[in-house]
Amino acid sequence: MGTGLLTGQAPCYNIYETADRRFLALGALEPKFWRRVCEGLGRPDLVHRAFDSTALPEVRAIFQSRPLKAWLAQFSPEEVPIAPLRPLDEVPHDLHVQARGSVAWDEADLPYVPFPARFSLTPADDEPSPAPNVGEHTAEILGDELGFSAEEIRRLGEQGIIGGVTR
Known about the structure:
By secondary structure, the protein is α+β, with helices and mostly antiparallel strands. The chain is built from six helices and five strands, in the order ββαααβαββαα.
């Protein structure tokens, strides 16, 4: 563990294991959020120990006393910055991930991550496509972008300097 504020030393900003061996992330840096957490844990005496690393064992033990779903149900209505850490197989089914369109499904019903940025005027093509072959665009780039002549490109290919030239 590091020594900074956000490196696992503060009880108010940490990852906790739950009774069902799942994990949740807590980001209650602001006093109002940490106060709600302490009240929800039944430990208002911890309010003034948000950044006291000696309180970590106590907070860990409390979170380990109940399953993840119980904690999420308890804190969700309280506006506490808490979130489950999802195993990879659960991520595509997460409501937030679905609402953001962060995962798409191919013809074989396998999930993939589409282009993450969203542009209103120039939408990205989210269909997966194979990566180009080695050298597939070499001639195009050398000729169109860098100004090499067809003869220069052919010679570079003959000399083995570039490969895959089909221009």
